[in-house]
Design a protein that fits this description.
single chain; alpha+beta; two-stranded parallel ribbon; 3 helices; 2 strands; 52% helix; 13% strand
Length: 90
């Protein structure tokens, strides 16, 4: 048997896990700005499926994300994005 997972299906599975298994009240996806429509569709499907009752689902687009040369630089850069975005939405 061959299992093929698409980008959409893995994001939906992750969203379901965070809502139903981890019982998160607020889920924030910080990604490339070009992913906004994709995440809005995922959120809409989750609501239509009855996965969302009181939970808040947000996407924060940060422009075009480009990966740095080293893993260390990448981790530091992502941490700075999260700090900046957290301050701007709270």
């Amino acid at each position: 048997m061959v299992l093929i997972a698409t980008y959409d299906s893995t994001d939906m599975a992750a969203l379901n896990y965070r809502l139903k298994t981890l019982h998160r009240d607020w889920i924030i996806y910080v990604t490339d700005l070009r992913q906004a429509n994709h995440f809005q569709m995922c959120f809409d499907v989750a609501r239509s499926a009855g996965w969302v009752s009181h939970q808040r689902l947000d996407h924060i687009g940060v422009g075009a994300i480009q990966i740095h040369e080293t893993k260390q630089e990448n981790r530091l850069w992502r941490r700075e994005i999260l700090r900046f975005e957290a301050k701007s939405i709270i």
